[in-house]
Prior knowledge:
Blueprint: H1 18-28, E1 33-34, H2 36-45, H3 51-55, E2 60-61, H4 73-89, H5 94-112, H6 119-137, H7 142-160
Parallel strand pairs: 1-2
Helix pairs in contact: 4-6, 5-6
Amino acid sequence: MTRRSRSITVPSRATKTKKQRVLDFAAGRGWERIGEAEWYELRVALPDVSVSVIQQTGLSMDAPWCGVRQHSFEELENSLLEFSSVYETRSDLRDQCRKEVIAAKDRAKWLSGRNTVDEEVRGRKAQMVEWMLVWLSDPSLFPAWLHALHALHAVREAAEQ
C-alpha cells in the first residue's frame, strides 16, 4: 500500500504581515490620515485584520477609530478630550466612543493589578483608570473636570514653592 503524504503549507518569508497589509493598503490610496470613510473602507477590504492591529500601525487616525492612547497622562488627556468632542458632536458614534474608553479602562485596570508590572506603572495606570471612569460618568463634563484638576495641581505647586 502506498502512503500519501499530506501537504503542509508553510508561509514564505515573502508573506506580508497584517500590519504591513494595512500600511500598503493605506499607502496605495494615498491616505495620510484614517477618518471615518477610510476606516470603513479598510475594514471591508481587510476583514481578517483586527482593530488593534490597525490601531498599532502608526497611521494617524481620528477618534474613535484610533482607540484611547494611554502611554502617558498627556496622551490620555488628549485622547479623552478628542473622544469628548466626538461624543458631543456625533450621537451616532457615542456607543463606539464608550466601548473604546471602556476597553482602555479595562486594559489599564488589568495592568494596575499586575504584580509583574513596576509599582510606578501600576500606580499611574490606576490613576488613569480614575480618569477614564470620570469620562465614562459624563463625557461632556470631562474637559471641565480636567481643567479643575490642572488648576488644583498649579495651586499645589505654588504652595510648595
